[in-house]
Amino acid sequence: MTLGARIEQTRLNVFKWRYSLSIPGKLGLALGIAALTGLLAQAKFFLPFSPVPFTGQTFAALLAGVMLGAWWGGVSMAVYAGLGAAGVPWFQGLAGGGAYLAGPTGGYIIGFILAALFLGYFTDRFVKARRFLPMLGLMLFASFVLIYGPGLLQLNFWLSLVKGEPASFGHLLMIGAVPFLIGDALKVVAAALIARAVTPRTAFGKEIDR
User: Fold this and answer.
1) How is 2-29 classified by DSSP, letter by letter?
2) Which of the listed residues 1, 67, 166, 172 has the most CB atoms within 10 Å of its CB?
3) What are the tens digits of pLDDT across the range 51-99?
4) 75 with 21: CB under 8 angstroms?
């Protein structure tokens, strides 16, 4: 067997394994990805004009669905959001509690769940989606629509209801999206490359295009 064939067989075995795991096993993996998200949340950098920081969370959210599949990728991000809201201090700045989710960045965390569900569905159902360019396109959509969408929506509510400073759409983009576009695009490219490297080229479950 050639080296390339061995690598592909290893990928296939790993994804078959995670596909056939028991529910406790999948919950364990989901908790592990949630913990990784919490760890990457501590890599942060604030801008003086925005309540939204740069963090590494998006990277973990993009890979959650790829690594765990649709439902369990979504579960991992829901675990991250739920346990954080319950008080586990793994939001950025070692914060926790329901007030954090109600704050200016809570919508982005809800978007992580949507992104993981979306990417996990395509990873599990379409072999062709695991190629670099299709995965890049899917991750760009997940990042800039499914994460930014609820993130900007809640940021707008927070500015209006808590700060009493309603923002125009342009101002909202300038504090909640535009400064992060390049950094998030780089995270998307890195996540798509990793997804391409670790996912099998052949079917491991119930792919439509097997």
Assistant:
1) -HHHHHHHHHHHHHHHHHS--HHHHHHH
2) 67
3) 888 888 999 999 999 999 989 999 999 999 999 999 999 998 889 999 9
4) no
Other Cβ atoms closer than 10 A to 2: 7
Decide: 113 and 79 in contact? Cβ < 8 Å: no
Question: Which residues partner with 95 through β-bridges?
Answer: 91
Residues paired with 91 in a beta bridge: 95
Q: Which residue has the tokens 């675990």?
A: 79
Delineate the domains of the chain, giving CATH numbers in brackets.
3-198 (1.10.1760.20)
Tell me the C-alpha distance between 46 and 52, whole Å. 7
SS3 per-residue string spanning 42-73: CCCECCCCCCCCECCHHHHHHHHHHHHCHHHH
pLDDT band at 129 (very low <50, low <70, confident <90, very high): very high
Closest CA to 111 of 75, 58, 173: 58
Beta bridge partners, 54, equal: 45
Q: Quickly tell me which residue has 């342009």 as its tokens.
A: 170
Closest CA to 81 of 128, 120, 115: 115
Distance of CA 127 to the CA centre of its chain: 20
| Backbone phi and psi for residue 91, each to the nearest 5 degrees, phi listed first | -75, 170
Distance set, CA 176 to CA 12, 143, 203 (Å):
39, 13, 39
